[in-house]
TrEMBL record:
Domain of life according to the entry: Bacteria
Residue ranges occupied by any EAL domain in the UniProt entry: 24-278
Residues of the full protein shown: 577 to 859 of 859
Coiled coil spans: none
Species this chain originates from: Mizugakiibacter sediminis
Full protein name: Diguanylate cyclase
Amino acid sequence: EAKRRGRNIWQPFDHELARDLGDRLLMESLLRRALDSGEFRLVYQPKIDLARSSVIGMEALLRWNSPQLGEVSPSHFIQHAENSGEIVRIGAWVIGEACRALRAWRDAGLGLRHVAVNVSFRQLLGGSVLDAVQSALRECGLPGNALEIEMTERVLIEDAGDTVEMFSALRRMGVSLTIDDFGEGYSSLNYLRRLPIDGLKISHTFMQGIPVNPVDSNICQAIVQIARSLGMKLTAEGVETDAQREFLLQLGAPYAQGYLFSPPLEAARVADFLEAWGDNGNG
Ligand code: C2E
Ligand code: MG
Ligand code: MG
Ligand code: MG
């Protein structure tokens, strides 16, 4: 009886633990080789100026094509790369690669103003981001304002102490700092007072109910007002319908991204996209 109860209690736990651990170890070991094996690439999603209907820049999004696992979504693997610390090397590569892409587009006559990269909590903690940004900009001969860094609120809540100094250093270089997925995870707005932030991106979770759901609509409106009154640039992400675009335009939200305008594009497709858009990116 004790044995059976013990098995009932422990077996499922052991099983899950083993699977999680196996998952984790497998992911971490595959990720460790992925960068050097060239399994990563970046895709780029346009950011649109709503009022002018022009393309102002591109957000770089990481893609992992693993020979063992196939295409793995960043929302799955980033967390493992953070746990193992591999995110520092991967993140530095992302910053470099995004800058090289922007350099190539500019050399091809596309006037894209900036490229945005996503940076995770663990990456900022390590303090290596500043070095990665500096060397990428230098290598590519780009000014700081060619680069935007997106990070989630977690970075700000779990303030690593020297966050303010690091942000100020990035700011002095001209790099802009944006809060991604704003409103999704945390309710404290205190960090907006303490930290030099340039922009907010409304979480796509609030976009889903626009324009019919009054709660989502009101939250969007409130975030647009917060951004405006603090002098921050606002981007709405996950815009999929024309009704959502209209709603944002009427609120005076300046920028948007989403499948309505374009899915993330392979680097080689960006020039064609801009041409089809009727815009060489200078608009
Ligand atoms: P994010 O930075 O908030 O990026 C937006 C995500 O929404 C992307 O998913 C994008 O493909 C997707 N998306 C774009 N337009 C639409 C739309 O209209 N509707 C819907 N439903 N989704 C849309 P993706 O590429 O799978 O990236 C997921 C997350 O992974 C990103 O969220 C970001 O937090 C993280 N991530 C991506 N690349 C990197 C990276 O290089 N470094 C780090 N640290 N994180 C990254
Ligand atoms: Mg982002
Ligand atoms: Mg986002
Ligand atoms: Mg997101």
